[in-house]
Amino acid sequence: MGRIRNYRAMIQQYGLRRCLFRLRHDIERKTGLLKRKFPAWRWEQRPLSYWLKEGVPEEPERYREVRENSTIKFFFPAGQPPRLHAGWASNAIEQADMILKGKMRFFSCLIADTGYPDIDWHRNPFTGQRASAQHHWCDRSDFDASVGDIKFIWEPSRFTWAYTLARAYAASRDDKYAEAFWRMVESWMINNPPQMGPNWQCGQEIALRTQACIFALHVFWNSPATTAERVSQLVCLLAASAERIAGNINYARAQMGNHAVSEAAGIWTIGLLFPELKHADRWRKLGQWVLEDEVRLFNWPDGSYTQHSMNYHRLMLHNYLWCLRLGELNAVPFTDLTIERLKKSYEFLYQLQDAESGRIPNYGSNDGALILPLNSCDYLDYRPIIGSMHYLFHHKQLYPPGPWQEDLLWLFGPEALESDVRPMERVSSDFLTGGYFTLRGQRSWAMTRCHTYRNRPGQADMLHLDLWWRGVNILRDSGSFSYFDPENHWNLYFISTSSHNTVVVDGVDQMIKGPRFRWFSLVKSRFIRHVQQGQIEIWQGEHYGYRRLPCRATHRRTICRLGDDYWLIIDDIIGQGRSNVQLFWHLADFPCRLEDKTIKMDVNGKEVSLYVD
């Protein structure tokens, strides 16, 4: 009965059609049929002439002339990147010089010795583990204990370092950064023949790599390092990447997440910007159809997003920002529904943003992804993406001057920095479709979650409370950074109920954990009320995740904002018999001490007290 229940839960989350597709895909992969669809080959076997439309010159110098005369527009004219503000430039040059010394930034926070330019593209520099490049990607698994977390292998091959080199070149016009880009691309291609090894395994990783290459190509176009031969070589990489993505994009769609958006953005971009490729029209049309259909399905009307993750929400928006801006420049429109949903999506993030820090609750999966790093802001600062989306739709700035403006300069030109600043008001909000709720005062505010999961929950965290005071995340969500930790299993802890600011009954999670990213017995919740009178604000909701237990428990939480500096949280556990109940609060990383039932924290010289009774 348990297995039947779990199958029913999977069909409920993904739908019968996706489940059947995934079953067929797994069979094709195990039997070798998928590998036949993507045969391995060597770069020299498919030169530029293989990918071009009939009549387009294949000789590198003449092909470069074709690119020179293209009427397709990028964010800025090829070879003419914007000049950076002095403060922004110093950050860019410092980070780029680190790359040239063989030190690369991982996930926007960790630094590792990777070497330069002969990088081992298949080695985790933090553990020394390696993934073999001798096997076809169809024969590989994302979860291999001998390799560890595959994202440490994938991160350098995502090519986000190309944006760092591009920013440094824009600031200095020093050709060493252009030369570094090309040498690293050449190294990557030598060590990653098509379809072989881990770096051809994930379509999203391939797509993000292509976008970084295209951006860098336009920045470095006028550098002596950008030879005609190198341009031709890079276009072959882009075409091979688009072929790989387009041939398996339905697998990404079956996952119901940002992978399909990234992959669609990748092939749409290549199809739009490189119309001389023989499959360009098909890639562009397929990419746009997927982009528009994914918005329809997974960007919910209230602005929330299907993946239940703020960082993946940002990743999704960066892809659409990229595509909508290029579409605007080249008179390629998107549907009205797409525009409407994306407006709601960035406004949703704005309402969940802390005004002082620019941060958003670290809610849900957060693997360190930042796919368009065009500024010197902290990785957790969401002003760059929210401000850029606002300008895209309104041609007004949302925030006062600061380093987050660099994105506007790159994507919209210097005139964007001269536009009016028109801030929006943040108010207490009920996002009923996504089940996110905020209570806002002047100096403090909170977010809670009360949602009935229907698809792809990331963590068992219902009625979690995030509390912010004077720009500090006092009660916080740790997020879930790693998806595979075969040694310590920390990934399982960070998605558990006990790692969130909520209640655990009888020592179990609110839902039953399945394999990999799956959960069974999806939790159901009910929003009860949200009222405000003057400086008093009350929110109440409950969930039924523990009704599967003998105690039949319901957890009801009442949140009361009493002015700006006092919050009262009441938790009622309603059920039958006796149960063990644990209340978890995860505090900001400040000095604290326990006095009887009160925890006192020193937050930037001010005392914050948490009393539990």
Give a description of the structure.
By secondary structure, the chain is α+β, with helices and mostly antiparallel strands. The protein is built from 19 helices and 20 strands. The protein has helices spanning 2-14, 16-31, 33-37, 48-51, 60-68, 86-100, 151-157, 161-172, 175-191, 203-219, 228-246, 249-254, 258-273, 280-298, 310-329, 336-351, 383-394, 406-412, 490-494, and strands at 103-106, 110-113, 143-144, 148-149, 429-431, 436-440, 444-449, 465-469, 472-475, 503-505, 512-513, 519-520, 525-533, 536-543, 554-562, 566-574, 581-583, 592-595, 598-603, 606-611. The strands form seven sheets. Strands 5-6-7-8-9 form a five-stranded antiparallel beta sheet, with no helix packed on it. It has a four-stranded antiparallel beta sheet with strand order 13-14-15-16, with no helix packed on it. Strands 18-19-20 form a three-stranded antiparallel beta sheet, with no helix packed on it. The radius of gyration is 25 Å and the shape is globular. The relative contact order is 0.08. The model has no long low-confidence stretch (mean pLDDT 93).
Please state how the strands of the largest beta sheet are arranged side by side.
5-6-7-8-9
Unreliable parts: none
Structural class: alpha+beta
Largest sheet: 5 strands, antiparallel
DSSP strand count = 20
Q: Compute the gyration radius: what is it?
A: 25 Å
Instruction: State the helix count.
Output: 19
Q: How far is the N terminus from the C terminus? A: 41 Å
Strand content: 15-25%
Overall mean pLDDT stands at 93
How does the overall form come out from the CA principal axes?
A: globular
Question: Helicity range of the residues?
Answer: 25-40%
